[in-house]
Amino acid sequence: MKFIQSFSLGAACLSVSAVATPPSEPEFVTSERLQNDITEEGLMGNLKRLEDIAYANGGNRAFGFPGYDASVDFIVERLEKLSETTTFFLQDVPGLFTQVASISFAAGGESIPVIGLTYSPSTSAEGLTLPLAHGPTGDVGCTVEGYAGLNVTGKIVLVERGTCPTGGTLAGRLLPAATAGAAAVIIYNNVNASVTGGTLSAPNPEQFVPGGFINRSDGLALVQRLSANETIIASFQQTQLIENKITRNVIAETKGGDPNNVIMIGAHLDSVQAGPGINDDGSGTSLILELFTALNSYQTKNKVRAGWWAAEENGLVGSRYYTAQLDATNVTNLLAYLNFDMVSKGFFGVFDGDGSSHGLAGPAGSDVIEKLFVDDLTSKGLNVTPAIFSGGSDYVSFMENLKKPIGGLFTGTGVDQDPCYHRACDNFENPNATVITINAKTAAHVLANLAIDGATLLPKAAESSNIGRIGEMPIQWTSGEGLEGQDSHTGTCGHDV
Fold this sequence. Notes:
Keywords: Hydrolase, Metal-binding, Protease, Signal, Zinc. By secondary structure, this protein is α/β, with parallel strands linked by helices.
């Protein structure tokens, strides 16, 4: 008995000694370590959870709906488990909530599928029944002068979508027609991708008229009839609700790492109203969640921050608000931003950081990020597609306003890449588990390198008095016209404006 007591005392002493020994420091992160920690099971498990959230809350995770709030709760639940190594906060974000309550379009008595343009004014409940007129084509469709000699007053104008110097590809076409006297504007797509939505970027009830968006094939058929001098009577009705609501970004960062050198990763957490949004952008949400979780097992030289953005689908609302609220010190300390929006189905796309493929380069250092992504994917025997900077995702304000190096992955929006893009079928059956896992491991490779060597690899942009404000000379984003699967995310969102 005495022996046992003595052993117990010895065990107790050993236990106290073990507790008193300072824990060993975590190892520094490496590409190999971080990639090994990324699993298909973890990535796909997150996507299943997001699908469950959507179906438990009316079928979507969109801004202004309970599914988005539940998605925030899911991210918070995961981050709370990292409390020893992570801090996080929820950022209230004011945004304009929109919902198309009813919409219809018919020409010559034939019903044609139409999508409401976010922030479009409503018609009356009865709608409009007026002659259909063909607007100007090409660049002249961007100006009211292009309507000289065309009688569009009091008519429904049919015009082709296209890039304009101001107003984007949709508002840039609607506004000149409205100024010329159109009662409503129907925009037909300039590419063959199915129309799933579009935005006018912000309300402008004094200058906008009701607008809708239709598929290219339907638009061209009407153009052909109008060109043959056929008189077509069209009917258009739309009721759109627009109101102010508060939503939330989720921002997390490692407790360790140099706060003067911050690497940020981000993805939008919201879906469109049409479906669960599992590829767009549950895939990016899952990727950065697994990446950030795995990173917390290691030391990094630079601090790493993650952002899950609100209301991207309503015009990049969350990321724009976040960057506008950063003070000069925090902007200076930010080394780079990596964006992951749709990464689970399609081609292996890397943003064209150096501009060598599409002509628009990111800020200095974006070429370095591009090379890190490309080199890792090609080392795995994969073909890389240079992705355009279309102005269609949350990198915009980091690139345009903060002038920070940016990069990221994107798998495409075309029918061949994702036929369920912005549709109800973007559910758990939609993503390709192999594609998201490959992309997540490549993202791990890039993040590990930047978390250790980012301060050496990337230049720091000089402080600017214009930080957080909209620049006087906005970037002319690259059009995806003619580039398969890169039609700038034509959605109810910043995906296409």
